[in-house]
Amino acid sequence: MESLGGQCVFASEIDPFARKTYEHNFKASNANLFNGGMFNDDIRKINPIDLPDFDVLCAGFPCQPFSQAGHKRGFDDTHKSERGNLFFNIVDILEAKKPKAFFLENVRGIINHDNGKTFKVIREIIENELGYSFHYKVVKAIDYGLPQLRPRIFMIGFKNESILSNFSFPPKIPLKFNMSDVWNGECSREVGFTLRVGGRGSNINDRRNWDSYLVDGEVKKIMPEQARKMQGFPESFEFPVANTQAMKQLGNSVAIDAVKACAKVMIAHLKTLKPDISLSINNNQISKEDEGFGIKSYLGSKPTLLNASGNTNFIFEILHLSPHAIDLVNSINTRTKLKDRIEKIHSLGGDFKFSKIETESMEYNLSMVDSLIPKIISTMLLEFYLNRTNAISDNLENVFNNINTFDTDLITLKVKVKRLLIAILLGFFAGKKWDGGYVSNGVIVVKETGEQVGFHIIDKKSLENYLFENIKFDTPSTSRHRFGNLILENDGKIYFKLNMQLRF
Known about the structure:
The chain has 504 residues and is of the alpha+beta class.
């Protein structure tokens, strides 16, 4: 990416030997990355909102759960929370920072893992929850001139890209050199074996062999010098570690030329995209030039107003419930488990008392809209998850009629909730403290029929009413956003989280 004009502003690598290699090769050209504390180790430690702003997220989430070398455990793999589920850390970063594009890499087996369910989840989250396009292709190193197959899936996407995208992966090119060039001798193979991490030392005639070659009539084992060439690294790239670690790093690496070729067309495509829509409005009521609008489209899946994340968890203290009931409640795994767990808590004498929102930024933003909003929304969430009243307008009316503890009337409650919906649409993000301003002045709604309706902030009442009548609560993934279980804290108190997601 640096060779294409990019600058790395944050990197994360947990393996100490890989960290040593990374710093050895890049500290001289990017001192700020290392001196500024932006070379992270464990990606699970960071708060995504604290990352510096950036344009493109490049990442490879762990191959092991999806590859034939592993146990094919996919997203159910929770071994030290370090493998399959790290995909959701990527999701959290995309959600919080909203870069213009992403470039992800994985083994090709991810496409068919768990009968295609794993890949389906990845694509649905990226497209439907995060609002990115999703282009993918199984790319081989040999497609871009390097002498090994090394099939990997490359996934590239762009924020708010039109469904009429003309992005395409670059065309294949001929081999730049062959294995005889790699060995500086006559090799029996023109194209080498795919570099791997384990399984070295098989007989050259064994079908599992990948590191032995017949060169000038002699059997030779591949070493970092040859593997570096096969992966496309320049001769200046050094591995200040033992050969065993160097081979491990090379076996885990991407093929440089393949990534560079795809990144080049990604950057070129980025330059054709316009992140915002600007319109001029002239009628009897409004005369505005170059007004910024957001877009919400019903074509395909219904759009979200507020995506679920750890930032949108509401925490309730559970009163009058014995700790012995925790396992009983958490073991409920029905199709409607959230509703059933809440009902079970009530049947065992437990009461829900709103405690706080999980993150300070979200609590700050809601309170800026109105100091009563956190309490109102927490009550509406209970109504939604218990009685499945998902329409905001119906939900609020039920809350007022059955649980009203707000010491105000329904009209006032509606005004407060409408203000919140406007603020979410045009103003704040859940993971960042809001300054009270709007990032756009209106929204264009694309209906299922393709008909388009525009709302501008100058006609705020129409926009508020539209949102109030059309927004619904939605149920996000309980495992991904870590809610829906009873939790016994060190202070002896029992807590339960509910998550807020809003959809048109």
